[in-house]
Design a protein that fits this description.
- By secondary structure, the chain is an alpha+beta fold.
- It has a 5-stranded mixed β-sheet, with helices on both faces. Strands 10-11-12 form a 3-stranded antiparallel β-sheet.
- The longest helix has 19 residues.
- The two termini are 46 Å apart.
Length: 396
């Protein structure tokens, strides 16, 4: 038996009923004084005694962030619409007996919410216990050990295996993996069913290649086409990998990724096109073992294509050219300095132009260069070589 994140445990009697996931005003759960028409400009919400101004459409979690209050989350992601599946972000709303999920409950003018209390600590702890009861506990060999949101929460709420033994049930191993791609593997036993991967595939990539299938203990993430274990719409961009809070979706490339404490992150610019996407090279022992991103950095805001995220193995390829090669008198390539190579190229270009005219020369620019570099390149061809024979290969 397996319970989705935030799902109740049959017969446990430990969790009080929670506020519905939809806007609470829809079911008349908010007092009439609060359910008045929300203003069209900023309005005031009080969080832990601190009044903050929030815009229309803001959630209780948005208000908490503005007030500097920390509310734990698992399924929430700043780039995605609220899901409300994990139930970890419970808060108390004055005038309402039942707790509300902060990530998808709309804030209203005059609301007073509490993010820290003994009751909330106990409720959140119970939710995390139920999630952990159906999650593998062999953290030591896990590649995400030390970089796992669920592990962090277990530590924060002082949980050990003995604390949720009442919820432990025998979980059957999946005889097959619901889906995999050439670069990704999905492990249903590790999945907490937060729904982030499904959301990012639909909302960010616009593909909708995967969906949540089944109910209760049988819930898994599967391809949209039920007769295929490889999502036909999937382009292996790895966005699902980047938003997974645990290690349910794992990269199949590059071997061991190293632990967080032995990994050095080096921010750099992706070289595959001229967009200038920012990314972090994960370096262990002088070798690049993976690529990660940060949501607040760069024009890509944490997003990458398949080449940017997984096309890093060429860095340490023995076939990679790391210095210029110039043909000697016998026609064999031999290493040379940049000065020697550029001098040789300039001399040959000048000889060909003088002998056959500028029309004998041409330049082919690269899509991997920036706009500024391509501009300088065409100026070199047009003004330096005296020809308009310049083109661009758009293929990456």
């Amino acid at each position: 038996m397996r319970i989705p994140a935030g799902g109740g445990h049959p017969g446990s009697g430990t969790m009080p009923p929670l506020l519905p996931n939809r806007h609470v005003r829809d079911r008349g759960m908010i007092p009439m004084s609060l359910a008045a028409q929300a203003p069209q400009s900023l309005f005031t919400v009080t969080v832990d005694g601190t009044a903050v101004d929030v815009p229309p459409g803001a959630t209780l979690l948005d208000a908490a962030h503005r007030a500097g209050a920390r509310v734990p989350t698992l399924c929430w992601h700043p780039a995605l619409s609220p899901i409300g599946s994990c139930r970890v972000c419970l808060v108390e709303v004055e005038g309402i007996d039942r707790p509300a999920t902060a990530c998808n409950t709309q804030a209203l003018h005059g609301m007073r919410i509490v993010t820290r209390s003994e009751r909330l600590f106990r409720l959140r702890r119970e939710v995390i216990k139920m999630i952990l009861a159906h999650h593998p506990l062999n953290c030591t060999p896990c590649p995400r050990n030390g970089d796992c949101r669920l592990q962090d929460m277990a530590y924060e709420y002082d949980l050990t295996a003995f604390d949720f033994s009442e919820y432990l049930v025998k979980t059957e191993e999946f005889p097959w993996r619901p889906f995999s791609t050439p670069v990704l593997d999905y492990h249903p036993r590790r999945c907490i069913l937060c729904g982030r991967c499904v959301k990012v595939c639909s909302e960010i990539r616009g593909l909708g290649a995967i969906t949540m299938s089944g109910a209760g203990a049988q819930s898994v993430v599967k391809p949209v086409l039920a007769d295929s274990r490889s999502p036909s719409r999937c382009i292996s961009c790895g966005e699902c990998l980047s938003v997974c809070p645990v290690n349910a979706i794992e990269e199949r490339m590059g071997g061991k990724k190293g632990k967080p404490w032995e990994t050095k992150k080096v921010q750099t610019t992706c070289t595959y096109c001229g967009v200038g996407c920012q990314m972090d090279l994960n370096v262990v022992g002088g070798r690049v073992v993976g690529v990660t991103t940060r949501d607040e950095v760069g024009v890509n805001r944490g997003r990458l294509c398949a080449k940017g995220r997984f096309g890093y193995t060429f860095i340490h390829s023995p076939e990679r050219l790391t210095r210029p090669l110039v043909r000697n008198a016998r026609g064999r390539l031999e290493p040379a300095t940049w000065t020697e190579a550029l001098t040789r190229v300039a001399r040959e270009f000048r000889r060909l132009r003088d002998r056959h005219g500028p029309g004998s020369l041409a330049g082919l620019a690269s899509a991997r260069c920036t706009n500024e570099e391509n501009y300088l390149f065409q100026r070199l061809i047009r003004q330096g070589f005296g020809t308009n024979n310049v083109d661009h290969c758009a293929r990456l």
